[in-house]
Amino acid sequence: MDHVSDELVRIVDSAEPVFRQVSEEDGGKPVLAGGWSRKQVLGHLIDSASNNHQRFVRAALADSLDFPAYDTPGCVVVQAVDSASWGMLVDLWVSYNRYLAHVIRRLPAAKLGVPCRVGSHAPVRLAYLVEDYVRHLVHHLDQIGAAGS
User: Fold this and answer.
1) What span, in angstroms and rounded, lies between the C-alpha atoms of 119 and 30?
2) Mean pLDDT score, 85-106
3) Which of 37, 16, 3 is nearest to 96 (CA)?
4) Domain positions in the chain
5) This model's pTM is above 0.90
6) Arithmetic mean of pLDDT, 58-73
7) Which of 12, 53, 68, 131 is 20 to 30 A from 5 (CA-CA)?
8) What is the model's pLDDT at position 148?
9) Contact (CB, 8 A) for 140 and 38
10) Cα 22 from Cα 60, distance rounded (Å)
11) Cα–Cα distances in angstroms (integers) from residue 45 to residues 20, 39, 48, 53, 61, in the given order
């Protein structure tokens, strides 16, 4: 998982300066279909980090994992992402993902095949969840112009 950890750090290092250039006002403006702002997307990415952190650690401690589905719009609303400061969201996203890179690097190789079911989806291996986390992250960073190269 070293390659995934390294890629995650590279992505964070590339996106952070882009995020630091976004003003508080621009962070709250709708930029995606459906009216989602950069704040809402970043809030969703923080939720993704949080949910996947739990999945990674719990799967590494078990022989299989069943994890609940994730209510994306509900979580953004309940957490009132729009009223959080842009700087705080950026700080949390950057720190959380650097920590996740640390966790990913240390996942036991023997546990990467643990079957993980999220919601009603078919089970996948822990290694797939880790790799998919980074793909999902890049997809959303690309939507808001922060994916880098």
Assistant:
1) 29
2) 98
3) 16
4) 2-143
5) yes
6) 92
7) 68
8) 65
9) no
10) 37
11) 16, 10, 5, 12, 24
